[in-house]
């Protein structure tokens, strides 16, 4: 009978540990999910900042207004072509 009582106590102790570990596991999963969202957000922000940095570099590398206007016209024509292709693909 004493052995049965000891097994019951050990079982209770194991069930308490299991419950605590489940709660910790749930908390850790939530932490990981939050951190993944943060990483994704920061990655998008970094990509945006890199694009802005490229624009600034392009703007500072071209010294006169004529070069900037030519560059703008070229970019406009490339964007127009991309829009046409996208419209064709969507049809």
What descriptive keywords fit this protein?
single chain, 91 residues, mainly alpha, rod-shaped
Characterization of this structure:
- The N and C termini lie far apart (80 Å).
- This protein has helices at residues 2-61, 65-90.
- It is mostly helical and 91 residues long.
- The longest helix is centred in the middle third of the chain and has 60 residues, at 2-61.
Please provide the ordered H/E string of secondary-structure elements: HH
Helix content: over 70%
Shape: rod-shaped
Q: Supply the number of structural domains.
A: 1
| Number of alpha- plus pi-helical segments | 2
Unreliable stretches (pLDDT < 50, length at least 5) are none
Q: How many strands appear in the DSSP assignment?
A: 0
Radius of gyration: 31 Å
Strand content: under 5%
- What is the makeup of the main sheet? none
| Mean pLDDT over all positions | 84
User: What is the rounded distance between the termini?
Assistant: 80 Å
Structural class: mainly alpha
